[in-house]
Each structure stands twice: as C-alpha cells, then as structure tokens.
Amino acid sequence: MSAEAADRVAVSGSRPSTPPQTSWFEFLLDEMLLENHLQKSHPDPVPVQLVIQFLEQAAKPSVNEQNQVQPPADNRRNRTLKLLALKVAAHLKWDLDVLEKGLTIPVLNMLLNELLCVSKVPPGVKHVDLDLSTLPPTTAMAVIIYNRWAIRTIVLSSFPEKQTKPGPHQMNMLNVVQQEKELTENILSVLKEQAADSIMVLEGSLGLKKDFYIHTLRTLDLLAADPSTANGETESSTAGLRISADELHCQVHYDLGGIFFQQGCSDQLAYEKAREHFQQTRELLLKFDLTLHVHLDEKRLAGYWNACRALTGALDPSDTQLNPYGQINSLIRTHNYQALVEAFIKDNVSLSLPNHLRQSVLREFLHKVQQGERGLDEVCHKLCVCNAVRDALQGEVLSVRFHQLLHKPRKHVVDFMLEVCTRSLDKDRSSETSKRKMVIFLKTLCESLAEPHLVFVVTAHKLFTELLKEEDRKILVEQMRKRSATVNLCAKPLPSFYDIPAAASVNIGQLEQQLILCLDARRIRQILIELHSMAERPFWRVNNKWEVPPDYINVILNIKDNLTKDLVYILMAKGLHCITVKDFAHTRQLFSACLELVTEFSPKLRQVMLNEMLLLEVRAHETGVAEGSNVRPPPDLVSRVRGYLEMRIHDLPLRQIVGEECVAFMLNWRENEYLTLQVPQQLVMNNPYIKLGQLLASTCKELPGPKESRRTAKELWEVVVQICSVSNQHKRNSDGRVSLIKQRESSMGILQRSRFITFIKKLREPLVLTTLISLFVRFHSIVRDDIVNEVTAEYLAIWPSTLANMQAVDVEAVAVTVKELVTYALTLNPNNQSWLITQADIYFVTNQYSAALHFYLQAGAVCSDFFTKAVAPDVYTDQVEKPSGVFKWNS
C-alpha cells in the first residue's frame, strides 16, 4: 500500500461513523423499536417521515397470480403499518402544527381518516349529524381533530405560495407533482364544500364541558390487542391523554377565529365572529400556567386580534394596550388626521412603526385622493414629508413622491418640513451619524428648491445654522446663488403634485396597484394605455388571482394587439370575480365594455361574451329567487336561454357551466317540454349537464305513470349508477413494478360525483328533486341489501330493482349522496311530507333513532295540522308505530 493510500485509510477511519437510517420494515419486526426510536433526541428518520413511509407502504397495491393489480390488501401487515403511523402521530400528541408542516394534504387526509376509522366514528354519517356528547371520548376527539384540520387547511390554502420551477433534472417528476396537485385540489374542494358542517361540529364541541381523551401509544396498543373494547376503554380516566375542556376550547376558538377571519373578505359579519373567538382564546390562555396541549402561535393570535378590532371598529385610540398598528388604524378610522401626523413625527424618534406600514398608510391616502375624496391633499403632503425625514435619518433613498413635492412647494409646506426635521432630531441625544444624515437631507432640500426665497427660509432656520458649520453654510449659499442665476425664468410652469410623472419603475408599480383595485372599465383602459406607454410586457399577469376559464384562454391570448389582449383578459377576469361575490352591477358594466370591445374584431369572442352575459343574468335571477323573490324570469331571459341551448357549435369555445346553469334554470322553471324535444342532439352529446337535464325532464314529464316513464327512467338510472361507480387505477415505476394504486371515480360516468352534487344543489323544483330522491332511495336500498327496514319515497316503482355490477358501486358515496340530497331538499321546503318521511326512514335504518323520531314527529305535525287531525296511515306505518319501531326505541 502506498503512503498516500495509507493516509486516506487513516483519515477515513478517524471519521465518526454515522449510524445507518432505520428502515420502515424493521418497525414491523420489533414491536418496541418504534417507541425506542421516537424517544431519541434526533431520530432518523424523523417522525413525520415515518408517517409518510408507513402510509405509503400500506397503500401499495398487490398483484395476483394472473398479474392483475388489486387494491391494497386488508391484511395484518397493512393494518400494522397504519397503526404505526397513528402511533407516531400520537407520540406527537396530534399537534396539527407539526403534522401540517411535515405532511402533504393527501397524506394527512389519509392519516386522519384512519384515525376516524380506528376511533369507531360511524361510517357514512356526516359529522354534523353526530351527537358528540354521547360518543366515547376518543371518538369525539377524533371528530374534533379532523374538523379542526379541515378548516385550518382551508385557511392555509388561501395563503399565496411561491411556485417553484423544476430544473431540467426534475422534469420527469412533473407528472407526479401534477397528480399530487390534482389530488390536493380534489381534497380541498371537498373540505370547502363541507366547511359549514365542520364549523358547526366545532361550535358544538364548545358546548361540551367535560374533559376529553385522545389516543396515545398505549390506547392504540390496546386497540390492536382487542379492537372491540379498546375504544371504549379510553372512556376511563386512566387511558388516553387527558385534554381539559378549557385547553380544547382554547384551541377550537383559535381555529374557528382563523376560518371566520378568512371568510371576512366576503362577509363583514365574519370578522365579528372571528373577534369573539379570538377574545375567548385570549381569555382562556390567561387561565393556564403551562399550556401542555394548546398549540397556537401567540404572535399570530395577537395579529389576528388587533386586525379584528381594527376591522370591526372595536379599537379605542386611548387604549394604552394597543400596539402601534392598532393605534394608527384607529386614528384613520376616526378621521383624526392631525393626531396621525403627530404619531408619524414622534415615530421618527421612537422608530416603533415599521417603514412598510408608514408607506402603506401614505398609499391609502393617495388612493383616496385619486378616487375623488376631498380635503386629503394636505394630509398626503404631511405624511410624505414625515416618511422622507424618516428615510433620511435611516440612510434610505428619498422617495420619488417626495421629490415631486419639492418641484413647486408652498412656503407652509417648507415650514412643515423644517418643523418635522427639528422634532425628529434630539440634538442632545442624537448620534453624530444622525446629525450628518440630517445635514445631507437639508442640503438636498436646498438643492431641490427652485425658488430662492424658499432656499433662504431653509438656510435661515435655527436647525440649519446649528448643524452646519459657517464655512459649509457659505459654500452652499454661494452654490444656490449661482444656480438661481442660470434658471430660465420663462420656463413652462411645473405640473401639480399629482401630475408630475415619476420614474417609470415607480409609476408602473403604482399603476399596477390601481389596476388591481379598479372596477371601472374606462379607468382600466386608461391605466393600461399608460402602462403600455412605459413598458411592453403582459400586464394581465399582474395579479395571479385574475383567472379566465381555460376554455377561453387560447382565444384571448391569440389576440395580436397586446393592449387589447390585456384589456379583454382583465375585464373578463374582474367580471367573473364580481359574479362570485354577487356584485352583479359591476359585472354588467365590465362585461358590457368587453362585449363592445371584442365586437369590433372577433365574432368568436363576441359570442363568448354574450354567453357569459347570459350566465350572469341567470345567476342574478336565481340569486334573487334564493333571497325570497318569486318573480318569474322575463320572457327575454327565457328566450336567450333557449337560444343558447339551440345554438349550433362552429369552432366556438363553450364552458360547460353555462350549459349547466341554463339547464338548472329551465328545470327550475318547469320547461320540461322544451328540454325534452328541442335541444340539439349535438349539444346533448357534448355537454353532460344538458344530457342529465334532458333525462330528468323526460322522466318528470312522464310521471306519475310508471309504465310510460320506465324507459327514460332506466336511462337516467344508468347514468347515475355510472356516476357513483369506482375503478382502480395504478402507475408503474421505470422498472415496471407497480408502486401505487388508488380507487378513483369511474371514468365511465358523464361527470364526477362532486360536480353532480353541485349541479343538484342548483335545482329547487319539487318534482325534479322528488324524482332524484326517489332514484337514490332505490339505489341506496339495493346496495344496502336490507329487506327488513325500508326507506320510503315516491315513484319507487319506476326504477330497476337490481344492479348488474354491485362491486363497482361506491356504497359509501351512495349513502352520503342520498342523505345530502334529502337534507338539501328540506332546506328548500322543510314542510314537504314525503321528504320528511324519507329523511326519518334514513335515520331509522342507520340506527339514529333520536333523529328519526324528530323527523317522524315533524311529518306527522305537517300532515295533521299539528295533530289537530288524524295522521294519515301512510305517514305512521307499522315500521314507525309497532313495538319494535322507532317510538319503542325512543321510549
């Protein structure tokens, strides 16, 4: 061996050896290994990484002897892996802050669904229908944890994220990333749909005054040993991690405050609710000497609290406990502008306000001036001066806005500048550096002033004479005298403070901000013209929240003129946003301007805008009906809807949602004859909502005769069965091995189940809803296969009584859909006897007897005029009244 090789061996031998990372399968072989691993100060892999590994392995598919991919087997190995993942989460004490940082939304969703499963949460029952007070402690706690995560995830997803661009070596990961993004978006869509239910569950938990228990490693071991008793065993005080009611309420109040604060953008009253929850959180925190089980960001809580007080007008300027932001906000809300300027001057010494806040306040006042508010010019000038002096003392570059102010100021403005300079510099305590920076500022002030008499005001001021040596003063005055002699006194008058063009980069930023906020079509066009005169770039990308439907994006981006392209895109994006917040007046203005613009050069875009304006009018009318209006749609609107549905497609981008809303509109106004006979077949084939609407209209039209309606009913039945079916999908690694399997909705359905539910919830015509309820009741009865307890509904005879492929049906999806459908129908008409009986039967067959009794009594009250008449026998059947019926179970 050479000397060099020997040295290398010696060096490598002297390095401390890193212990190998523990592999996931080792935890299957040694029951004690996981607990010992988690007790290490720096475990490798870390706990959240273990959760990912365990769940990833448990979700792997199996391959049978025929080399066919099968769903993950329900065997001891996979059950143990899921249990290990839960035990890691239990070690982390179910701290959602830690879990959310380390796990993606799909993985955390899988973990918490597994927690619901092992905690014996009744499957197929919506959490909002559960009575938490009657559930075992760990079951109730699992429901609470899941719904806390649901609303927290909605809040976190609303925060902007920086999009990372993959490098060349990462391009092969794009498909995986895209799949995970789609899965995340699907989960978020479901969570947002159920947000109101999650809020109700958590609000209900605040009424529980008992202590709670959450699964620990011990209780999960008990669960593995005896699944039938482990969950109940945690009801005792000796099992599970005890969480006091106050600790849980503190955490729930904080999470509810977050979701209500997020909803405040579209509902001002939500800020009031958020403030109340954050107030409760603060009060509960004061009770704890040591918060072992409360995990929240107290700095964020303080920020939320102050923001809520500012937004709800609950701030008192005299409150000494207010932070600087709260005090400034309170002064603005109370229009105490003199005190606001004083606060800015004092802050030049104390430096307690962040500079970005001061700049933000100035921008807010400038925006108000540009919007036409009067009497704020002087406030803008003073705030601009205060910020300039602050910048000077901190060595920052003076703003363009301040330089604009110096072009032609009045004497009182210069006097105010000198006053601010004097009060911002404590001559006895200020450092030499601060004094030098103030001298530089005063010199800049003199050099920027064009009027000699204003320069004299500065040079004669006491602060100037104290800070500058006599020799420096003489040199500066001489320079000013020479400069004034060369000034062209006949020069064109300088423009006003707001008209002077700033540096391009500054002006672009300000104009882009105005562009984001503006809803006036003419002003938007004017701003874009100004922006395009300064820079050639796509200004439709200024705000990543501006979105136009993918169906239209290519048509718009193919517009050759960049200004027109930006204008069309932004007008449409802003109009679509206004529809979502039900600001229909602004939408009409924006869409009308866009229609006028595109009519000049693009027949295709003209038709697109006419379609969008039709959708606007349909939504506006349906919103009015939902808010209590009973006015029928004007004939012109019905005619336009018919025109859309009869439209022949010639290379025209169409949004399915336009057809969806038009179909729902026609069904709601009982235009069944039209939908059945006059809609072009090409449109039926291309738009699933029109297909669905035609089948519903045909079925309703032929009711109540079961023989005549069975043909169209069978077609509708087959379409719905496909929507509620599932299929198994998998992917393979580069070596050909199967690495992942997922159970997805069948691609054979004409649309996804979530979109089908969304469409149903746009319907309000009783016969259409009764038909759908009847279909799903029959569907549910077949997949449930219970001949003893039946759910009743109208028109059951028109539907098939068997299913060809029961294994392909998502049974839980059918159960959830029928319950969701009936619940929605009862929100429209809580006194519909048939729907009440169906709802009661559903609760009865799922062993929720208390809820069943409630709806049976309500149905009886409706049909008997509050029991002043006899209840019809078809309402209180033997199933209800006989000794084994619901009245017996609730006696």
Q: Please, could you describe this protein's structure?
A:
This protein is mainly alpha-helical and 891 residues long. The protein has 44 helices and six strands. The strands form three sheets. Strands 1-2 form a two-stranded antiparallel ribbon. The chain has a two-stranded antiparallel sheet with strand order 3-4. The longest helix is centred in the C-terminal third of the chain and has 24 residues, at 603-626. The protein is globular and about 110 Å long. The N and C termini lie far apart (93 Å). Residues 1-18, 162-174, 230-238, 485-506, 729-743 and 886-891 have low confidence and may be disordered. InterPro entries: INTS8 (IPR038751), TPR_INTS8 (IPR057980). Keywords: Chromosome, Nucleus. It is found in: Chromosome; Nucleus. This is INTS8 TPR repeats domain-containing protein.
Summarize it.
The protein is built from 44 helices and 6 strands.
Q: Which key phrases capture this entry?
A:
891 residues; mainly alpha; two-stranded antiparallel ribbon; disordered N terminus
Shape: globular
**Which class of secondary structure composition applies to the elements?**
mainly alpha
- Write down the overall mean pLDDT: 78
**Tally of helical segments:** 44
Beta-strand residue fraction = under 5%
Oligomer: single chain
Largest pleated sheet: 2 strands, antiparallel
Strand order of the largest sheet: 1-2
Q: Could you tell me the number of beta strands?
A: 6
End-to-end Cα distance: 93 Å
Poorly predicted runs of 5 or more residues: 1-18, 162-174, 230-238, 485-506, 729-743, 886-891
* Helix content percent band: 55-70%
Pfam family, one: TPR_INTS8
Keywords: Chromosome, Nucleus
Family: Belongs to the Integrator subunit 8 family.
InterPro entries: INTS8, TPR_INTS8
